[in-house]
Design a protein that fits this description.
Number of strands of chain A: 17
Order of helices and strands of chain B: EEHEEEEEEEE
Helix content of chain B: under 10%
Number of strands of chain B: 10
CATH architecture of chain B: Beta Barrel
Strand order of the largest sheet of chain B: 3-10-8-5
Strand content of chain A: 15-25%
Number of helices of chain B: 1
Radius of gyration of chain A: 26 Å
Distance between the termini of chain A: 62 Å
Largest sheet of chain A: 8 strands, mixed
Structural class of chain A: alpha/beta
CATH superfamily of the largest domain in chain A: 2-enoyl-CoA Hydratase, Chain A, domain 1
Structural class of chain B: mainly beta
CATH superfamily of chain B: RNA polymerase II/Efflux pump adaptor protein, barrel-sandwich hybrid domain
Helix content of chain A: 25-40%
Shape of chain A: elongated
Strand content of chain B: over 45%
Oligomer: heterodimer
Shape of chain B: elongated
Largest sheet of chain B: 4 strands, antiparallel
CATH topology of chain B: OB fold (Dihydrolipoamide Acetyltransferase, E2P)
CATH class of the largest domain in chain A: Alpha Beta
CATH topology of the largest domain in chain A: 2-enoyl-CoA Hydratase, Chain A, domain 1
Number of domains of chain B: 1
Number of helices of chain A: 20
């Protein structure tokens, strides 16, 4: 054979593989409102940057008639490419090939690109669209999953791992996304669950649709398994690319810096927070009034909305924000919000992203349900995450900081580097109403008009303790600032923290309360 | 802002949105020791006692089959069966009142 003929033969072979599961299967995929695996990969990556490997991999299954079947690429595409010119590793399960089912070689392709990503210290993007284990391959298929989960864990905190759920992702398969840093879901397309509706109906008699059980909304609002929710695949790809502008390529690097921009003038920081501590407002407006271009990229927007987490830039550098949200449940801490914040804090710490905390919270969510769900254990995660974090940590108390919540929200006692409070801040062991009821119980009961006495004592307590100066007198607050000084104080404190050196005792690992 | 409601934390009333999760939470009720509830959804395959019957502690009252397991529902203390709310062959949801003891 001449070289030319060899080249033609190669092209023919490639062409065959590029057909995936064939025209019919592709039509089915399109009819479900889904892009094909290759379209997804090329839409996420820079144009013409994708290079595919393991195109000619074939499965070795010899049972149940599998020996007669040829599965192109064994149902998964792997390769490397660039996003905004920076290298990434990517894999995409191809539902058109045997339902994207995971056999041994399919898994080996995924673990190959995972190993590559970890070795090259570049982000790993995984697109999940699979019917699950390839039953015909038996325990080999389970082995494949195990090898993937192990690598997800090894890579955790070293390189960013992004999981995109663009189809079913059921049974054991869900644990790969669950082990990664960010999970993206798309309305009507993503479906994640351990046991599907059919099994649930058979054994438990409960009837539920796939969408209601594990659709995109469920995971972004109820379970907290997903971080980003989109209405279309293209919107999802934009979210992925935007996220990647905020995070570093690995744990030894800093996120890329952008040209500094001032916040937009419509966010007037002095007009956002009502002085009455019982009145709501959207804390995200405070964040937008301090970040560059008022561009705040929120994660887990619809889950545990009583706390807000996300990325923004200050003077062009990425900052992670954690903020109580007085608009929802008055901004209390509870099981879900503690989980949400703690994981984000650990992400920022692992990837060298300074943390800014905006605090305005009345305490923990009261209730039997919370106590029985283990709010003690979950709430402890925030304390753990902040105490463990050695990146620059700055807190701004914009209004209330009561009780255990004051300690938890990156207080001086958790080794915050800078503690600022606005002049209307109330830093106290609890709100004036509750405190007065306890401290002055006798006086209130003995008074001729107990209600008038109660009001008087609440006012007395508020005057004496509900301010930032008691904490400032002890040095727990570094300085009380005017709201409009917030951005400049944050910029300054991040700047002077840029060479921060802080360490924790050497250990194999801690035992966080998860 | 969405639907604003009053919300009490440690004696102070805050004006805030509530979440679906919070509003749909189950209020806690003290379990009644004389009530035997299902602890898992399943099928009642066999009932061994009748209403009005005296039953000793530890005796099996019925079999609740769930997840391919035949679970023996046992009498929690010596007593008389006041009422049986289930029949053989029916499917029961979780936390359904099955038997009341006098």
């Amino acid at each position: 054979m001449s070289l030319k003929r060899n080249i033609l033969d190669l092209r023919k072979r490639k062409e065959k593989v590029l057909q995936g599961g064939g025209e019919k299967a592709i039509q089915k995929q399109v009819a479900m409102g889904k892009l094909t695996a290759r379209e997804r990969v090329t839409s996420i990556l820079d144009e013409d940057s994708f290079h595919e490997y393991d195109m000619f991999v074939e499965h070795e299954a010899r049972d149940f008639g599998m020996e007669k079947k040829q599965l192109h690429g064994d149902g998964v595409i792997i390769g490397t490419g660039t996003i905004y010119g920076e290298p990434v590793c990517i894999f995409a399960q191809d539902f058109t090939v045997a339902g994207g089912s995971l056999g041994l070689m399919h898994a080996r392709k995924i673990t190959k690109i995972m190993d590559h990503a970890l070795k090259m210290r570049v982000p790993l993007i995984g697109i999940n669209d699979s019917g699950g284990a390839r039953i015909q391959e038996g325990v080999n298929s389970l082995a494949g999953y195990g090898e993937i989960f192990f690598r997800n864990t090894l890579a955790s905190g070293v390189i960013p791992q992004l999981s995109i759920i663009l189809g079913p992702c059921a049974g054991g398969a869900v644990y790969s996304p669950a082990l990664t840093d960010f999970v993206f879901v798309v309305e009507n397309i993503s479906k994640m669950f351990i046991t599907g509706p059919e099994v649930i109906k058979t054994v438990l008699g409960e009837e539920i649709s796939m969408e209601e059980l594990g659709g995109a909304k469920v995971h972004s609002e109820i379970t907290g398994n997903a971080h980003f929710y989109a209405l279309s695949e293209y919107e999802c790809f934009e979210q992925i690319k935007k996220l990647l502008t905020f995070i570093p390529w690995n744990n030894t690097k800093k996120a890329k810096a952008f040209p500094p921009k001032p916040p937009k003038p419509e966010y007037k920081i002095e007009e956002i927070v009502p002085s009455d501590p019982t009145q709501p407002y959207d804390i995200r407006h405070v964040i937008k009034s301090v970040v560059d271009d008022s561009d705040f990229f929120e994660s887990m927007e619809n889950f545990a909305r009583n706390i807000v987490i996300g990325f923004g830039r200050m003077n062009g550098e990425t900052v992670g924000f954690v903020a109580n949200q007085p608009l929802v449940l008055a901004g209390v801490l509870d099981c879900d919000s503690s989980d949400k914040a703690a994981r984000f804090i650990r992400y920022c710490n692992a990837f060298n992203i300074p943390l800014v905390t905006f605090e305005d919270m009345p305490g923990y969510l009261p209730g039997v349900e919370q106590e029985h769900m283990g709010v003690i254990r979950h709430g402890a995660k925030i304390l753990y995450a902040y105490s463990e974090a050695t990146v620059p940590k700055i807190t701004v108390i914009v209004r209330k900081a009561y009780g255990g919540g004051y300690i938890a929200m990156n207080s001086r006692h958790m080794k915050a580097d800078f503690m600022f409070a606005w002049p209307n801040a109330e830093i106290a062991v609890m709100g004036p109403d509750g405190a007065a009821n306890i401290i002055f119980k006798k006086e209130i009961l003995a008074a001729e008009d107990p209600e008038a006495m109660r009001k008087e004592k609440v006012a007395e307590y508020r005057e004496k303790f509900a301010n930032p100066y008691v904490a400032a007198a002890k040095g727990y607050i570094d300085t009380v600032i005017e709201p409009q000084e917030t951005r400049s104080m944050l910029l300054h404190s991040i700047e002077v923290s840029s060479n921060k050196v802080d360490s924790r005792p050497a250990k194999k690992h801690g035992i966080p309360p998860f | 802002m969405g639907d604003l409601k009053e919300f009490n934390v440690d004696g102070t009333i805050y004006i805030t949105e509530l979440t679906k999760k919070f509003e749909n939470r189950k209020p806690w009720v003290r379990p009644n020791p004389k009530h035997i509830n299902s602890f898992i959804p399943g099928t009642i395959v066999e009932i061994f006692v009748k209403e009005g019957q005296d039953v000793k502690e530890g005796e099996t009252i019925m079999i609740l089959e769930a997840m391919k397991m035949k679970n023996q529902i046992k009498m929690p203390f010596d007593g008389k069966i006041a009422k049986i709310f289930v029949t053989e062959g029916i499917m029961v949801p979780n936390r359904l009142l099955m038997v009341e003891i006098e």
